[in-house]
């Protein structure tokens, strides 16, 4: 039986390196320690089930500069996928799309719309009405999801096969 190290080495030889991800939770109350992070671990679990290696989960407040810095740090760190959760609604502190958009070299509007459409179909109004963006920053796919369990579960189910495809396409360059 091949152990995990041998399997990873074999995958690297074949060009099938495990993609790396980082999860950003945008929530003032989590950062303040008022509530535990319940969505970050869910995103990590779903990513790991989809054969991603999750480098870290970080929580930031609903501040445009903090969100942008967290995304930019992940991009500079060379992760393949950044999934942010929260801050995509219409409230005063919902500024995740405004923080992410200037960092994107290319928008992936099809992913944005697929996540919204599948959210509405599944009865998740917050996912369907999300202002979240998706795109490519350098060699990193960046996606914003709404902050409910239903939105995360449905959004990740929609995102994961698309993310694998985009990551494979942009890593060919």
UniProtKB/TrEMBL annotation:
Domain (MoaB/Mog): residue spans on this chain: 22-166
Gene3D superfamilies for this protein: MoaB/Mog-like domain (3.40.980.10)
Keywords: Molybdenum cofactor biosynthesis
Source domain of life: Bacteria
Keyword Oxidoreductase: no
InterPro entries, A to Z: MoaB/Mog-like_dom_sf, MoaB/Mog_dom, MPT_Adenylyltrnsfr/MoaC-Rel
Pathway assigned to this chain's UniProt record: Cofactor biosynthesis; molybdopterin biosynthesis
NCBIfam families tied to this protein: molyb_syn (TIGR00177)
PANTHER family: MOLYBDENUM COFACTOR BIOSYNTHESIS, MOLYBDOPTERIN MOLYBDOTRANSFERASE
Name of the protein: Molybdopterin-binding protein
Annotated organism of origin: Gordonia hydrophobica
């Amino acid at each position: 039986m091949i152990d995990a190290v041998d399997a990873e080495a074999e995958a690297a030889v074949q060009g099938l390196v495990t993609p790396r991800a980082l999860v950003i939770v945008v929530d003032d109350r989590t950062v303040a320690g008022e509530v535990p992070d319940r969505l970050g671990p869910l995103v990590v679990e779903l990513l790991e089930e989809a054969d991603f290696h999750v480098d870290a989960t970080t929580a930031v407040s609903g501040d445009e500069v903090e969100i942008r810095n967290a995304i930019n740090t992940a991009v500079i760190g060379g992760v393949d996928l950044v999934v942010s959760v929260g801050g995509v609604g219409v409230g005063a502190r919902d500024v995740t799309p405004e923080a992410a958009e200037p960092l994107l070299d290319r928008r992936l509007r099809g992913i944005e719309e697929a996540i919204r459409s599948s959210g509405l179909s599944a009865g998740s109004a917050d996912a369907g009405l999300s202002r979240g963006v998706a795109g490519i920053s350098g060699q990193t796919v960046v996606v914003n999801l709404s902050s409910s369990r239903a939105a995360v579960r449905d959004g990740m189910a929609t995102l994961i096969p698309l993310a694998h495809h985009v990551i494979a396409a942009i890593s060919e360059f």
